[in-house]
Amino acid sequence: MAIFAFLPPVPPFLFSALVVSSLASKALHIGLHFHSLPFLYLVLYSPTLILPELLIISFVRLFLQFPTPESRLQWISTCLGGLLSLITWGASSIQFGFFMQTGAEVAWAASNSFLSDPAAMKILLSGISTVSAAATVLGLVAWLIHAHLYNLTGIVLQGFRDLMIGAFKARRNILSVPRKSWIASVDIRSARRIALLVSALISLLFLELSRPSIPYDHLSGALPLTLLDAFTKKSSTLEGCRNPAKPFPLWPVEKTSLVDGWSRASWLPQDPPPGFSRWAMSPQQRAEKDNPSYYLCGDDENAFFNPKADPLKISNLDGDIYEPLQKAFQEHSVEINNIVLLTLESGRKEMFPMQQGTPMFDALIASHKEKKKEAAIDRLVKMTPIAQMLTGEYATDSKGEKVDLSEANWQDPAEEGMGGLNVRGALTGSSLTFKSILGSHCGVHPLPVDLLEESMLEIYQPCLPQLLELFNQKKMPKTIEARANNSHTSEALQNQWKSVFMQSITDDYDRQDILDENMGFKHKVVKKTMNAFRSKYKPKGEEINYFGYAETELKPYVRDLFYEAANNKTRVFLSHVTSTTHHPWGTPKSFDKEKYMGSEGAANHDLMNNYLNAARFVDNWLGDIMNLLDETGIANSTLVVIVGDHGQAFGEDNKDMTGTYENGHISNFRVPLVFRHPHMPRIDITANATALAIIPTILDMLVQSQSIDKSDSEIAAALLPEYQGQSLIRPFISSIKEEPPHDHDSQIKNPDEIEVRAPHKNHHGPHTRYVWNFGLINAGGSMISVTAAGTPYRLVLPLREGFEYVFTHLGKDPGELRPTNSWTLSQLINEVLSEYGKDAAEWLEEAEKVGIWWTNEQRRIWGYREA
Known about the structure:
A hairpin with a 4-residue loop joins strand 13 and strand 14. An eight-stranded mixed sheet has the order 5-4-6-2-7-8-3-9, sandwiched between helices. Strands 12-13-14-15-16 form a five-stranded antiparallel sheet, with helices on one face. Strands 1-17 form a two-stranded antiparallel ribbon. The longest helix is centred in the first third of the chain and has 49 residues, at 128-176. By secondary structure, the chain is α/β, with parallel strands linked by helices. It is built from 27 helices and 17 strands. Helix 24 (694-704) runs antiparallel to helix 25. The protein folds into three domains: 2-231, no CATH class; 324-704, Alkaline Phosphatase, subunit A; 738-865, no CATH class. The protein is globular.
């Protein structure tokens, strides 16, 4: 029983755990924002920031008394106080554990989505070791001081009580003895104490009322009260009617009609597949739909997405095709019977391929001692040989010589100068995987809210599987028989498309399975189909992370699909998402890891080293896929599109924050974008494009290469202008100068409706229209990244309180090592004006307006509102 002598009494220990946890949490909360807070203001308002904790501590201390067997009420209050203490201890441990993993703080408002998702819980549980470590440290500190802290706070509270009772007695004496002097009846010492207390309370109240709401309201949040955000419902789909579009803030936009689009298109079959309701139904038919996202407010046709009225859309379809591509298309040397779309999880452009000359590469080499740097360079540049061949970006070693790729598991059979399009400068539309996939698969911007709410709504553009299904519906058996007699129509063009989705992990996370179905995938291979009793190929390896297996387990499924296409039974569209490069970056035990990181610097190089090895594993897997295309004989008739879903920030990029969650660092947004075909000329494209360009480029390629028949070409040509992205087989247009429409009064009757914060701008004269790019920052509803093609500026725009504005000049600071942060836009503009000049400050003003407008417009287009 001697061991129990070391255990503290329960109420004092629980109270001490509450005090230590709440104050430590507040210190972390303020410390994460310390760099952006004026020091004098922080000192001045610090009493108001700690006031909620002091009130909670006092409240719980009154509850946590030593209960006696006779006092049932005291038992209840002690249990309640103990529960609050345990909750605070646990929440603070989670905050510190999350901080140790990512450098960020937990957003409790978004946690309810994770807590309700079993697959997401595995992500949270992956950090249980750091949470346990934090809980142990907090508990140890609480144990060391529990007795003194409990007694001290008891004495303080009793002193307040005695002071109040003394004041009450003095007041009673004044009232009961009117003939005596009231001054003589009051204890002078108590009066002074009361006066000081009242003065302190008045001062505190004045500071509370006078302090700026931003950021101090956010900083004053206290555990366990902030946990209530996790249990509040934040959103719902739209019910009743959809509001019309708001005026664009920078210039008037010409009003156009959707009536022609509502009338049935000549190419649309009688029963079109999902995704085409915008063309198929009249407003009256829409109102009869069960899905509330169809509803209109009256007959206002502007309530739905209209590409012709989109002020952010810039089309390049009138431009000429790149001359080498035009020649290849005219010579009919480019045949596209199959499409493979590969999405690289956490696929950073700096690693596709890994080569010298990027901020990331320099940071990796800096982890090595000087005498080992040459060997480190030679090892790193050989890490992704397949990516070098697919992009045509060949790396050089420490001696400046081209890297020998002869040991790679695939060798590019394409002739010199051939291989397709390689885009430099591409950015993701979201650092949450399946929000970014909406751009590559459907050509739409994601919804700026947390997690996959899009899965519960109608996608406002047809996705690629739905487009291909539309082609299929136009090829009814009689039509195929008739076309068989047409010598100008090849047998391959008569085959129907088969859209298949594959990934070696679960699709249960955050309603992905529902989204896959909504995008039009009727066939898929995922973890549960691989593990099914009747699965054709059982996994042979172990699960490598909390989601599932390594990509190589899919190899027999991919081979069968490619042979199906090779036997001229079907035209294949394969969408495959890799997963090994997702945290925790596990690889199969049979995979030999390399030591890419050195020992210099303070960052956790083990995490980066695991990620680099996972990237090498995926590069080898891409080689396997390319070999399967060669093996089955369909490589020369297959377009392979490769895109990253988002990047992955590490301590080598940003010492303050790692990962993607609520981290707006540029390393989470630069991604590769490649259109590989062995018979297309190699063309390097520098453009700030996004995955929105993928569907327009594919459709344009199919039409120009005559890889679809006349009927399908008419459909593709009609749909091309409907998408927001540009076709990358034509020169990318970053911006245009144009005059405002003459009939803008038809849309904006009152010019005052447009708020113009920059009076020096003439928004009714000629203006420059940029291609604005937007990127949601994981989990999607807190911040967005705003850039404009052709400009070096970038804004991280907060959508909720508690997040800062961040401006960077990527031309001068490509690695975002010196961002400019501020809690308010006006302060940020002043700092940017001082450091970067008038042009940057004006761009910042416009970027904020466009970002806010775009956020509201996306919610409207998707038929979504917050509750």
